[in-house]
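pasting for ref
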Amino acid sequence: MAKFGGNEFTGFSVPLVFMDRYFLLEPTDPPLVSVFVLVNGKPEFEVLKNKAVGTSVSDATTTPPGILTVSDKATQRFLYKVRPASETSVAFGKLDGGEITAQITDKKIQVGGFNIQNNTFSGVMAGVVVDATGGVGIGARLPQTVVDLLRAS
């Protein structure tokens, strides 16, 4: 079990999903953020414990203030940026070129205009799913491939 933003995750700690990228948080101080994407059915980490890694499909960099930025390797399109801190913030790139922001604090998870607090997510669900247009869903099921990977680790 893990708690993020007053929300309880039992079974798996996947508070955010964006464009088939799975954001995992370890509840330390500050939280450790890891992000993986499935490439040919295998996980590749773009961010691992607050460090930019990159994958075969993405480039990841870190700015001097510690902001992690990830872009698509083929198109150079901005995908997302993460500012790990006691209040982790994420900005997702939308298809129209805009951004949608998310913030995870000790009180809530806020994505765009949605505030999610004091919920329980049990088992194979993600807390919040953001799509490339900025649409937001809550409590979506994780694909079986991801569930199998998380159970194996």
